[in-house]
Amino acid sequence: MKLSIAIDGPAGAGKSTVARAVAARLGLTYLDTGAMYRAITLAGLRRGTDIHDAEALEALTKIVELDIKSDSIGQNIIFMDGENVTEDIRLPIVNRNVSFVARCPQVRKILVDKQRQIGSRGGMVMDGRDIGTIVMPSAEYKFFLNASLTERSRRRLAELSAKGEEFELEQMMQEIAARDKIDSEREVAPLRPAEDAIYLDTTLMTIDAVVDAIVRAVRGEE
Ligand code: DC
User: Fold this and answer.
1) How far is the CA of 91 from the centre of ligand 1 (A)?
2) What is the pLDDT of residue 160?
3) 57 pocket-lining for ligand 1 (C-beta < 6 Å)
4) Residue 176 Cβ contacting ligand 1 at under 6 Å
5) Beta carbon of 213 within 6 Å of any ligand 1 atom
6) Residue 180 Ramachandran class (φ > 0 left, ψ -120 to 50 alpha, else beta)
7) What DSSP letter does each residue of the chain carry, written as one string?
8) Which of 27, 91, 143, 205 is found 20 to 30 A from 59 (Cα to Cα)?
């Protein structure tokens, strides 16, 4: 079976871009697990589900049909009940609500089961918050990416600005700090590095440098 790589870390640490590039360089398949929590959040917001009601969220997660495909450059395309929601799951309203959905144990159970099923084939690069600790604890390689709050907020601003959405740095820092807090303090699968994870502070690193560091570590070149 092909090796698998877990990449965890907080919002804006560069996980998705790095994980996708690493998968492409090593001929592995990339799965963005955050996109799954985002799709359930979008479904809930559209249907008027109470995002703080665990039973309602569980019922929602059971009926929403999630399908994840990869495009020609390995980017994940997310389908929710047959609709391509790849763009919509990045909307600011989803950013603001997704941590509440992701802290619900019932939602996590359903999505983690799905992620493990996808991961059981091996050959995966998965990114998220609990990949090295819960979803793929036996992954051959685990990385935990972090960066300063200011740098992570700047990266998110740049991403949004590329889509024509402007935010103040201060506002973005507050939003990201609020999500970090919920993700790190929740009872089930809080954000934390696996004991055997390689920790990378990417504050002063380019994406290419991070990708190189991971690929080199996996190839045993350092
Ligand atoms: O990585 P992201 O910003 O797309 O993640 C969206 C949210 O989902 C974030 O609040 C953390 C949560 N998440 C999680 O709890 N577990 C994962 N494996 C992936 C994401």
Assistant:
1) 14
2) 84
3) no
4) no
5) no
6) alpha
7) ----EEEE-STTSSHHHHHHHHHHHHT-EEEEHHHHHHHHHHHHHHHT--TT-HHHHHHHHHH--EEEEE-TTS-EEEEETTEE-TTGGGSHHHHHHHHHHHT-HHHHHHHHHHHHHHHTTS-EEEEESSIIIII-TT-SEEEEEE--HHHHHHHHHHHHHHTT----HHHHHHHHHHHHHHHHH-SSS-S---TTPEEEE-TT--HHHHHHHHHHHHTT--
8) 91
Give the CA distances from residue 85 to residues 4, 69, 157, in Å, rounded to whole numbers and listed in that order.
27, 12, 21
Under a CB-based contact definition with an 8 Å cutoff, are residues 175 and 181 in contact? no
Q: Would the CB of 102 count as within 6 Å of ligand 1?
A: yes
pLDDT, position 137: 96
Determine which residue's CA is closest to atom 15 belonging to ligand 1.
102
- Residue 222 pLDDT: 65
Map tokens 């960066």 to a residue.
147
Spans of the chain below 50 pLDDT: none
Give all strands of the β-sheet with 76-80 in edge-to-edge order: 66-70, 76-80, 83-84
pLDDT of residue 56: 98
Q: Domains in the chain, ordered, with CATH?
A: 4-218 (3.40.50.300)
Q: Measure the CA–CA gap between 167 and 174, rounded to whole angstroms.
A: 11
